[in-house]
Amino acid sequence: MKFKKLIVIVLILFVQTISAQEKVRVILDSVYSYAVNSYKRFNILLPKDYFKSEERYRVIFLLHGYSGNHTDWVNRTSIVKYLNDYSFVVVTPEADNSWYTNSPFFKNRNYEDYIIKELIPYVEKKYRVIATRHGRAIAGLSMGGYGAIKFALKYPQYFYYAGSFSGAFRWPSLIEKNRNLLSQSLREAFGEKRTEHWDKNDVLVLADSVKPVNLPYLYISCGKDDPLEGLLESNRKLVEKLQKNGVMYEYHELPGEHNWIFWDIEINNFLKKLSEYKIK
């Protein structure tokens, strides 16, 4: 009788071990960045079959918002659960309140260079991801949505798909109107007044001059009840410019505000859309 119980216990432990191995793995990693003169952390989410195969996977660089960090997506959404249905590697980098931009004032705040020139090559060298344009997607919320669309428009050769949830595209008006910490981060990233640097990083300016050939497919969404002044309007304005220039995109105005309830729903929607997208 005791022997049978022992067998049952062993079988249960075996099943639990196998089950644990088949879940999405969240790993904390870091890379030294010369662009920002410090180590920068990131979470990397590996598919449940990553350690059982030699396959290379498509990778999503998923950007946090203002006042966020590299842990937000894992801690505040159900992305780990959602990823059990897909075979994506997801990277959630730490970028402080940088607006994913090279500051014209501080030598150690070149966050655009960090993402494009350091983080992406590091991930592609260390992990089994598809190291070509057709293997890379980028997305983000609020400040990260701005960063994702900016990178998609400035570096179309890097990404085949990009997503923005509640993208903060209205930052010029915030610089001019406010004198708070958010405004300070914007001034450090872009400057006080419109300059060439400003225009090179203003998504609404970039969208005026883009050519649809070889641009990533863009997924853009915003909550109908987003309370941030001008945010919904700036998303609509961006979409108008994309439509005018023949850019391939989809736009969703959905019930929701500027919060994690909305972003949790949207990362699930984004993963589904991305998995269904046929690379041309």
Question: How would you describe the overall organization of this protein?
Answer:
The structure is a single chain. The protein has 280 residues and is an alpha/beta fold. It has one domain (25-276): Rossmann fold. The protein is 42% helix and 19% strand. An eight-stranded mixed β-sheet has the order 1-2-4-3-5-6-7-8, with helices on both faces. α6 crosses α7 (181-190) and α9 (203-209) runs parallel beside α10 (231-244). The N and C termini lie far apart (62 Å).
Provide the fold topology.
Blueprint: H1 2-21, E1 25-33, E2 38-46, E3 58-63, H2 72-76, H3 79-83, E4 88-93, H4 111-126, E5 136-141, H5 143-154, E6 161-165, H6 171-177, H7 181-190, H8 196-201, H9 203-209, E7 217-223, H10 231-244, E8 249-254, H11 260-276
Parallel strand pairs: 3-4, 3-5, 5-6, 6-7, 7-8
Antiparallel strand pairs: 1-2, 2-4
Look at the structure and give the mean pLDDT.
89
Number of strands: 8
Within the CATH hierarchy, at the fold level, what is the topology?
Rossmann fold
Helix content: 40-55%
N-to-C order of helices and strands = HEEEHHEHEHEHHHHEHEH
N- and C-termini, Cα separation:
62 Å
Summing up helix and strand content along with how strands pair, one would put the structural category as alpha/beta
How much β-strand is present in the residues?
15-25%
User: How many domain units?
Assistant: 1
Name of the CATH first level:
Alpha Beta
* Helical segment count: 11
Poorly predicted parts: 1-20
Fourth-tier CATH superfamily name = Alpha/Beta hydrolase fold, catalytic domain
Just name the CATH architecture.
3-Layer(aba) Sandwich
Strand order of the largest sheet: 1-2-4-3-5-6-7-8
| Envelope shape | globular
Largest sheet, if any? 8 strands, mixed
Question: What would you report as the Rg, rounded to the nearest angstrom?
Answer: 20 Å
